Every structure is written in structure tokens, then in C-alpha cells.
Amino acid sequence: MKVIVIGLDGARLDVIKKWVKEGHLPAFEKLIKKGTSGNLRTTLPGPHSVPAWTSLFTGRNPGKHNVLYWRQLKERDYKLKTISSKDVKTKRIWNYLSEMDKKCIIVNALLTYPPEKVNGILISGWTTPDQDREYTYPREIKKILEKFNYRIVPECRNRSKESLDRLYKALEARINVVYWLMENYEWDIFINIFFETEILHHLYSSFLDPLHPQYNPEYEKIVMGCYKKIDSFIQSLIDNIPKTTIFVVSDHGFSPVRNKIYLNFVLEKHGFLRKKRLFHKSQYKTTNYIKKIMKITLPETIKKKLQRKRVEKEMEMVIDWEKTRAFCAMGAIGDIYINVVGKYPHGIVSKEEYNNVREDIIEKLKNDPEIGDKIRGIYRREEIFSGPYFDQTPDISIFFNGKCYSNLYKGVAAEPVDETVGFHTLDGIFIAYGTDIKENYTITNAKIVDVTPTILHIFGIPIPRDMDGRVLKEIFKGDSEFAKREIVYQEIDEKWRIRERIRKLKFEGRFGTHSISQKR
Ligand SMILES: [Zn+2]
Asked: How many domains does the chain divide into?
């Protein structure tokens, strides 16, 4: 038995179904009609690609795998750090399969840099810092990729023809690399993530929906072109690799956005956050002068790096921590942290005050005249997270309705935007196809954490008990081996259990008999 997992970052089932109906995607039509399909509910905070793919490949929530965003708060600090594969604190699907001697090829999965040793091949995806690094295991694979002009992330930041050409070239190179690896190496599971779909949905979301005022059939064709290429790729997999179960999954959906919300401004407005005065006028002038020089002289990559550093520095300089009870640290994932005594260097909220402060924030935000109606979900951490990294998760996570996304600070609560026309929504896609998969079946309650346990079950590998997901047994035909086979579980390994216990003790030590209770 072989398994192929095709990840289409940010793909939406409604868009795919529309193009299937119009006859543009014959392979997808086959997958849906002869297989099982439905929405795949993603994970919070966010939704964001990095925690979502990590939940998909670990079968666990961020409180267990420790991944919230591509840059996240350092422990006991207000500073952010860029995370890497080393920050993923639980095993991913390829670790379990490698241990059972199954051959794995993983191409472009997010947050896999630096690449780890697997029983097969691993090619790191985004957040690899740049292509000069050693981003493959084994190392020699990199040389082969260069011959294909392989790009980890295509340089496509706008809708110019040059940008799109680069994206389509990268897509073609990725498909050629996948074919080449499939033909030349042994594998039991092949995982490939297309990141091109995420880039296109960010740039074109509002142009895809015929009901949206910005709908543009020419732009729709550009995005559809990418899906058509993936469609013919899938068709060749169906034709050439029999006895294989194919999964097509995405990490979240997409929607056009109209508003950007600045959470730290909202917190300031309600008296939870206090700002310092940032610059004297003279300093401000100097900064502007330096910015102008930078614009002319520095290459794009260095400019970006400096800008990032500046934002970080500004965060530190701007917020008056001793007068701040709550803050947003990452922005795009709708995260709010409470400045707790003992947890942060200048914490001011005591454990006795914690619950009242948190409830107060939730009430004020829900009833805020500028942003209240834009909130679709607001969650206390124990409602959505559990596990040894629970204390690193946001105290409050906000999910905005599809028309909004959040950011850190500007002198307004919300403002209209059009520079980024698409942002993430809760529902990604789930499609399964193969001889053992039910035909023309719609699955209604699949979650992103269910994918890994389902695949482990196919391979007959026991499911670790601490996984949050379940085996989607309903996708298998009643007479198939996988429907009949009992689900077997395994205890989590001792090293992990000890780590969990230590973290729990640390957490309780800091919080005493705090009223936060974990789900499991
Ligand atoms: Zn994504």
C-alpha cells in the first residue's frame, strides 16, 4: 500500500467545485465523484499556514506541538523569535513511518528547515531562510534540485507578468522534481505541498468570486491555470500509480478581506495597554532620512530583514510594559497575551486578577463599536489548547470574520485595505481517493488533526494516545481492510511524558493553584 498526500496550501473546496462544474478540472472531478470529499476544519490561532500544517502532520493542537506562527514569543519574554523545525516538539507523521521502516519522501512541507533525518528524502519548505542553505536530507539531493531550477518559494509578490512567470516556472519545476523523485526512489508515502496556491489566493481572492464587486474573469483564469496544472499532475498519478490512496488537503481556506484590525490600538483604547512616546521629533527626522537612503541603496532581502528588526524594536520601545495588562504579540493570528507577574519580565497582572482581566478584555472587545461585529470567535486558551506548551499559547485567541484580518498597531482600530486581497478562513479541503475509499461520499466533520491518525491507521501503525485527531474510519468502504481493522493505539514515549510533567510543574509553580484548567 502506498499513500500520496498532495497539499494545496490555502485551497478552497467551493472554488474547486465551481471549476469542476465548468469542466476545467477533470482529475479533481474524478477524485470527488469516485472518492470522499468535504471541508477540513483547521486549527487556531490564525488560521495560519505554519501552525495548521504542523497540526496536520502531528495530529495535535499547538499546545502540544508548540507552533503558533512563523515568529513567536520567546519564553518569558516580550521578544519574538523566528522558529524552525527544531521548535516542533512532537513527532510528525514521517517520524512514525520512518521508525516502522516505511520509506518517506517529503517535498516542501512547511517548517521542516533545518531538514531532519528520515527514512528517505526530505526537502524543506517555507520557512527555509534562503536557498543557499542545506535544505535537503540527504544533502546531495540539493544538487539534483538545482538542475531542475527548483524554487522553495517562488518570488511572486504582486500581480505583474514577471512575478506570475516566476510562479508558474516554480510550479513546473516542483512538478518535475516530484515526478523524478517518484520514479527514481523507493517510497511508501509521498508528501508534496504546493505553496503556489497560497500565494495566488493572497493576491487574487476577491477576483475569484463572481458575487464580489472586484470579480475579474481574466484574473480568475490566472489562478485556475495553476489548478489546471495541478489537475493534470493528479491525473498522471491516478493513471500511473495503482494501488495508492491519494489525499488532497489544504491547511485553511481563503476569503477576500476588506478591513485590517489593529489589536494593540484596540487594547490601548480600552485601557489595557499603555504606549511610550516613541521618538523625539529630531530622532524621527533622522529615521526618515535613513529610510530614504535604505530605499535607494540596499537590496530587497536586507531591507526586509532590517524592517523586521525595526518592528521588533518598536514593539519593545513603544509599549510601556509596567502599565500594560494585555498585548498582542504576533498580530496576524489574533493573539492576546496577559502581562502576568512572574511570566513576563515586567508582568503586572497577578494570578488573582487574571480571570477578571481576561473576562473584561473579552467583554470590551465583543462590544467594541468598531470591531465587535467583525469578531466571529473569541476563545479563552483552555477552550482550544491543551498540552505541555499550553502556557505559551495566547490567553485569548480571536478569529475575525472572513472580511478582516488583524495586525499589531496603527493609530486606528480598523481601516479598509486592498493591498492584500485575501486572507485565511477556517475551512480547508479534504479529499481522499483510492480503491478502499468510499465513492461520491461527503465527509462533514473532518478536522486537520485527523489526517495523520487516518494515514497511520492505513499503514497499521498504532496511533499515539495523545493525538487530538481521530481515524476517519467513515471514509473507507465497508468491506475494505481499513474499515474492518481495529484501531490500535500506542502510549506516548517516556521522554515526551517526562518533558510534559516538567513543564506542567513549572507552569503550576508559576501560577499556584490557578483556575486555568487544561482540557486533557
Ligand atoms: Zn496556508
From this structure: 3
Counting every residue, how long is the chain?
Answer: 520
What does the pLDDT read at residue 519?
A: 39
Task: Confirm whether 29 is domain-assigned.
Answer: yes
Give the separation between CA 337 and CA 393, rounded to whole angstroms.
8
Contact 329, 73 (CB under 8 A): yes
**CATH at residue 207:** 3.40.720.10
- Average pLDDT score, the chain: 89
Q: What value does the mean pLDDT take over residues 177-194?
A: 97
Quick check: is 478 in a domain? yes
Rounded to 5 degrees, what angle do the CA atoms 36, 41, 43 make?
Answer: 140
Angle between helices 13-21 and 26-33 (to 10 degrees): 110
Question: How many CB atoms neighbour CB 243 within 10 A?
Answer: 9
The span from the CA of 208 to the CA of 219, in Å, is 7
- Answer yes or no: do 244 and 269 share one domain: no
Taking alpha carbons only, the member of 428, 318, 445, 325 closest to residue 46 is 428
Instruction: Compute, in angstroms, the gap from residue 202 CA to the centroid of ligand 1.
Output: 10
Dump strand ranges (E) for 205-311.
244-249, 253-256, 259-262
Q: Which residue bears the cell 479598509?
A: 416
Q: What is the structure's pLDDT at 282?
A: 46
CB 314 within 8 A of CB 48: no
Determine the distance separating the centroid of ligand 1 and the alpha carbon of 209, expressed in angstroms.
Answer: 19
* Contact indicator for 106, 118 with CB cutoff of 8 Å: yes
* Dist. CA 68 → ligand 1 center (Å): 13
Same domain, 101 and 135: yes
User: Ligand 1 centroid to 251 CA: how many Å?
Assistant: 5
Determine the structural domain holding residue 301 and report its residue range.
279-309
Mark whether 291 and 170 lie in a shared domain: no
Half-sphere exposure of 70 (CA within 13 A, CB side): 14
Q: How far is the CA of 221 from the centre of ligand 1 (A)?
A: 21
